[in-house]
Amino acid sequence: MIIHLIDGTYELFRHFYGLRRFNKGEDRPFGAVIGVLNTVLQMIESGATHVGVATDHVIESFRNRLWPGYKTGDGIERALLAQFHPLEEALAAMGVAVWPMIELEADDALASAAQIASGNAGVEKICIWTPDKDLAQCVREDRIVQVERRTQKMRNADGVREKFGVDPVLIPDLLALVGDSADGFPGIAGIGPISAARLLNRHGMIENFPSSVLGNNRELALLFKKLATLRTDACLFRNIDELRWRGPTDGFAACVQQLGDARLLERCRKAESMTPMADLA
To answer: Which CATH class is domain 163-228?
Structure first.
């Protein structure tokens, strides 16, 4: 069995700004929501049986208390922000497992879901659908992989090493040193990606660095590593079967009427009819 874990926040952004190229600035109230539902449904139509979607129910998390410059909801357009909660409701109505995060972030949910699923011997592969470099830390050889939606590129552990120059487990250390502008922390001045990878491959994790390497910046680097390290302790589900898609709920008909796209219901019913009865039990 293959588990598909989707970054719902990224998908919402992707569809929102993708539509901007065609709508001449007139944003449909649920345009991005419909786009995400179509993406998830297309995966199901293509054979995905176990799917989970993580979202940021609120933008801020515990990390904002650790670093004042950490990302917030400031600057997110209202038309986009207004679609976060409707997306969560629509996914649930469509029968898809959805994890709206409050204290943690969507990335933490994806990391936690991958950790839980990896403990099931029947899981052959776990695909994390997001381009975010943070999630590269979750990759484990060929079993837990990262997939970029736009390029359809699947990155295993060798792919992470090729792209970043370090093993997946050292990604938080790498980000701590070079910074992550998307998350709002700058890294350590004077250390770039190449020199960071060289240091990590020589000494291992930041905690093992000789004191002379970072000097007075050691504690700052460790703080940034804490920001970059994804949590894997979110209790999202107990049984992997909770991720199995069994068709839309009874409330999905009203949901698609509100969204204004009846085709979603038709496609869901068709996909459900194509699902083997054993999968619906």
So the answer is: mainly alpha
Contact of 139 with 146, CB cutoff 8 Å? yes
**SS3 readout for 66-103:** HCCCCCCCCCCCHHHHCCHHHHHHHHHHCCCEEEEECC
Q: What is the pLDDT of residues 19-78, one digit of tens each?
A: 988 877 788 889 999 999 999 999 999 999 999 999 999 989 999 999 999 999 888 999
Number of C-beta neighbours around residue 222 at 10 A: 16
pLDDT in tens, 88-141: 999 999 999 999 999 999 999 999 999 999 999 999 999 999 999 999 999 999
CA nearest 33: which of 253, 259, 251? Answer: 259
Q: Distances in Å between the alpha carbon of 77 and those of 16, 36, 125, 141?
A: 10, 18, 36, 38
Residue 6's SS3 state is strand
Domain 2-162+231-280 has CATH 3.50.50.60: no
Report helix, strand or coil for 52: strand
Note if the pTM is more than 0.90: yes
